[in-house]
Amino acid sequence: MDQKIIKVIVDTPLWEPLDYLNVPAENLKVGERCLVPVGRRTCVGIVVGFSQTSSFPQDRLKKIIGRIDRLSPLSSNWLRFTKFASKYYLSPWGETAVPSLPKFFRRPPGQRHDSSLNRLRKTNFVLSAPDQELPVLNEEQKYVLDNFVQSKFGVSLLYGITGSGKTEVYLRLIQKVFDKDPEAQILLMVPEINLTPQLVERVAKRFPNHAVGSWNSKMSEGEKAATWLAAHEGRLNILVGTRLSVFASLPKLSMILIDEEHDSSYKALEGVRYSSRDLAIKRAQIENIPILLGSATPSFESFQRALSGDYQLFKMTKRAVQDAHLPELELIDISKDRVKGAALGAQVRDEITKTLEKKEQVLIFLNRRGYAPVVTCNSCGWVSTCPHCSTFAVYHKTTGNLTCHYCGWTTPLPRHCPKCGSVEIVPLGRGTQRVEEEIKELWPDANVMRLDQDSTRRKGSAQEVLESVHQGKVDILLGTQIVAKGHDFKKVSLVVILNSDPVLLSPDFRARERLFSVLMQVSGRAGRGEIPGKVLLQTQYTQDPLFHHLSRQNYSDFATEELNSREKTRLPPFTAQALVIAEGKKINEVLKYLDEVKQAALSLQYPGIHIYSPIPQSIMRIQDIERGQLLLEADSKKVMQEFLAVFAPILFEKMNRFNVYIDVDPLNC
Ligand SMILES: Nc1ncnc2c1ncn2[C@@H]1O[C@H](COP(=O)(O)OP(=O)(O)OP(=O)(O)O)[C@@H](O)[C@H]1O
Ligand SMILES: [Zn+2]
Fold first, then answer.
1. Which CATH superfamily is 139-316 part of?
2. Torsion angle of alpha carbons 488, 492, 493, 494, nearest 10°?
3. Listed residue (67, 17, 62) closest to 39, CA to CA
4. Distance of CA 540 to the CA centre of its chain
């Protein structure tokens, strides 16, 4: 029987799918894209259902325009998955699902749509590579291979120290899937910063007979369209992608692997604020396939669930390369070792000189870019702030400018103090540019490279720097987070960590977890080859337990201790949080509005929910817009979901006066 009404989701902020009159001759199926009129526009929508009746009067319903092409429909699992994501993160289904398609597939088709499709299909994802000798797996790796359950849904956590051969395990697991079904599809998720051509190449080389593609926000629309289509049509076997790849259409998806699962880039910070790690687990459940989360420093959320038995825990405690050992870490009390007016203390200088004499490489980590985080006037105490944000403007010596890292506002460094006219304007604190200057003065003959957001603006320039480190052309590599992640430097024998102390004073309850993780990552860059490694960490707080655990490379004790304190103070993962964020011109109005929201939430008297008072966000003003937040807390994610289902309609009713966002399971609050 022909169905009269066709239900379609489109990229608009509407909670229910739109009803249209069907054109039975088009023979559209659930999961197919189609063209529909929305207001005066023509939009691409996705068919999600049919019915004989509509709650709208039929004479007011519009007719669908028609089909777009003959692509196979999106799977019912994919639809279920996107619907779940929409419900969980309180974002309309259409706005969640449709934007995950590349532009080519969500825009009304051009005249030569079919020939464009055929052109996209010609992209080749198979790389034939010479046979390679595979390493013999060690006992710990073998154990994972033998005990990882492949046939059904289950979450496993692979907690393996840096260099323990996690990537090798991923590759072998993929091989096992292909042994059973050569047509299978696998999703390998990686953090934004880790998706290097080297990794994709490593995967592609291992599977010369399978198609391997990558997926990230930096790709051109053409590349995205070709990759998405190949995945959707089952021609792509392995998709290596960043967080948005969790929404890819993979009809033969058989396993999901998430590398560095603790990485915060898996969480979207704008739009639909989803955690792609959490969504990937849901996706695996819907598809009834296994999922493996890997990390040297698992997120406390995941570690807790492994300890409680929800996830299967695999441990890899040894470095995979023969004779490679975890580096020794030494804490240096900077208050005793300081060289006046300099970032590098006496002992650090000594060790760097020795390392350079041995022709080995040094890596220096400082998580602050620019020259100085702020400049100040020595006469009157004026400091460089951004006029549009509640932040400091950072001095960049290379450009001679003060720049706001939040809004990009830039102005030349004033010659005279704007307040008192004095010429005594001096930099305060140190960023990578200033430390680079110090290093170049100390070791004028060394080849020094700096790697941070400023030095790598050009596409591919980070790759060039990393390549020359691998080739041994660089003596000292200095950088921010970018140098911390994943790179397998074989000749780095000394790692120096400068000034991570400010993080210890942060009010964010996740700051310690994050610091530990990044410091473990950085330390893990030392001693990966045959040369033993050493890590020196300068700090004022040598007694802090965080550094104590770090120097023993003891993630597990650190996590257990911190988890205990989180449990006592009722913080995630022992509770669930959600933020209502509102923005407007004046913080007072924003807070007043959020207080109304709070009263509305309180009036529900929902058990197991705690509602805090509205406060300004930690960086209250960005680009002249002021932001406040209201924190909601529940005993569990389940209770939070149940509460939000009741509360959301009330909240959305109130949303018209301010821009309001909801962040479920926020990472910053
Ligand atoms: N069983 C093995 N025998 C010898 N070498 C191995 C073995 N497994 C892995 N390796 C090598 O050890 C090095 C580190 O392995 P891999 O990159 O898989 O580690 P990882 O745990 O992913 O590291 P990281 O967490 O630091 O990214 C690589 O050079 C890899 O080729
Ligand atoms: Zn600014």
1. P-loop containing nucleotide triphosphate hydrolases (3.40.50.300)
2. -110
3. 62
4. 30
Assess whether the region 139-316 and the region 328-371+430-565 belong to the same CATH fold: yes
Helix axes 113-121 and 221-232, enclosed angle (nearest 10): 80
Q: Indicate if ligand 1 lies below 6 Å from the C-beta of 127.
A: no
Q: Does domain 328-371+430-565 have CATH number 3.40.50.300?
A: yes
Q: What pLDDT is stored for residue 531 in this prediction?
A: 80
Whether a cis peptide bond, with omega within 30° of 0, leads into 208 is no
Q: Specify the CATH architecture of the domain 576-664.
A: 2-Layer Sandwich (3.30)
Q: Where along the chain do its domains lie?
A: 5-100, 139-316, 328-371+430-565, 576-664
> How far apart are alpha carbons 466 and 363 in whole angstroms?
12
Known binding residues for Zn(2+) are 377, 380, 386, 389, 404, 407, 417, 420
Q: What mean pLDDT value characterizes the chain?
A: 92
Q: Using CA atoms, how far apart are residues 142 and 326, in angstroms rounded to an integer?
A: 21
Q: Which atom of ligand 1 is nearest to the CA of 169?
A: 18
Q: Which long-range contacts (CB under 8 A, 24 or more apart) does 118-123 make?
A: 120/222, 120/225, 120/226, 120/229, 121/226, 121/229, 121/230, 121/233, 121/235, 123/226, 123/227, 123/230
Residues with CB under 5 A from ligand 2 (ion): 386, 388-389, 404, 406-407, 409
Render pLDDT for 227-238 as a digit per residue (tens, 0 to 9): 999 999 999 999
> The complex's ipTM?
0.96
CATH homologous superfamily, domain 5-100: PriA, 3(prime) DNA-binding domain (3.40.1440.60)
